[in-house]
Design brief:
By secondary structure, the chain is α+β, with helices and mostly antiparallel strands. The protein folds into two domains: 203 residues, BirA Bifunctional Protein, domain 2; 42 residues, Roll (SH3 type barrels). Helix content is 28%, strand content 32%. It has five helices and twelve strands. The strands form two sheets. The protein has a seven-stranded mixed beta sheet with strand order 1-2-3-7-6-5-4, sandwiched between helices. The chain has a five-stranded antiparallel beta sheet with strand order 11-10-9-8-12, with no helix packed on it. The chain is globular. The termini are far apart. It binds biotin.
């Protein structure tokens, strides 16, 4: 069982997670915040022990055993006018990666746009969903799945999964990990306002695919090239021959 008091003890945020919803079972925590956001405050976090229909990127499913992992979503629905969604995406993956490195001294690797890998296996994935009203961003839901104490993975995975327990060989406190992720995420999104360069540079430092030959599956196209960089907006820049091309979405793998 997730212990909310223990979680609260080291939550140092001013708004992220201050409204905290804990639920045994739900379709998807992202779906919940997307439909209920009007009645919920900025920074609301919902954590579910099990998702009946957990959603992954590109219409995939997110599979996660009951009571073992972290499957949660964060709602942002205020002061969104100057927000760059890609920056939030990178801030979230950086928050997860830094939390894991700080708490467990595990080296993480970021895969564009927002997977967190350990030893080339997937430890965590992030799904951002948003709504716009007259091209104005109305709400943003950041859904995060972290494989924590699950050690057996059945089913089909595009990238082989791993978990913290599998890597560090001991039971992990989900409470401590969640408050650390939320603390880091809030610090990152506050810093974005004045210093998005720091977030982008830290992200680059953890993305060991930069400079490598990669293959991208993007909108039914397969593209080969060198992962050149991410631009100031967090899009991927790929070098194909002498040309630089911007990639806004897709799945990448080493060639
Ligand atoms: C991916 O790597 O494909 C993204 C996975 C995102 C999974 C999380 S779990 C909590 C939140 N609710 C969902 O339905 N999906 C996200």
């Amino acid at each position: 069982m997730f212990n909310i008091e223990e979680f609260d003890l080291k939550l140092e945020t001013s708004f992220i997670g201050r409204n905290f919803i804990y639920i045994e079972e739900i379709n998807s925590t992202n779906e919940y915040l997307m439909t209920e956001s009007e009645n919920l405050g900025n920074g609301t976090v919902i954590l579910s022990e099990f998702q009946i229909d957990g959603k992954g990127r590109l219409n995939r499913k997110w599979l996660s055993n009951k009571n073992q992992n972290l499957t949660f979503s964060i709602l942002l629905n205020k002061k969104l006018d100057k927000i760059n969604i890609n920056h939030i995406n990178l801030s979230a993956s950086l928050a997860v990666a830094n939390s894991i490195e700080n708490l467990f001294q595990l080296k993480t690797d970021l895969k564009w746009p927002n997977d967190i890998l350990v030893k080339n296996k997937k430890l965590s994935g992030i799904l951002l969903e948003s709504t716009f009203n007259n091209s104005k961003l109305e709400k943003l839901v950041i859904g995060i799945g972290v494989n924590v104490n699950q050690t057996k993975f059945e089913g089909e995975y595009k990238v082989k999964p791993t978990s913290l327990k599998f890597e560090v060989k001991k039971e992990i406190s989900r409470e401590r990990l969640l408050n650390e992720i939320l603390n880091n995420f809030e610090a990152n999104i506050i810093e974005l306002k004045t210093n998005s360069k720091r977030i982008l540079n830290d992200w680059r430092d953890k993305c060991r695919m930069i400079g490598e030959h990669i293959t991208i599956h993007s909108n039914d196209k397969i593209i080969h090239g060198i992962f050149y960089d991410i631009d100031a907006n967090g899009f991927m820049i790929i070098k194909i021959g002498d040309q630089l091309e911007k990639i806004t979405s897709g799945d990448i793998s080493l060639k």
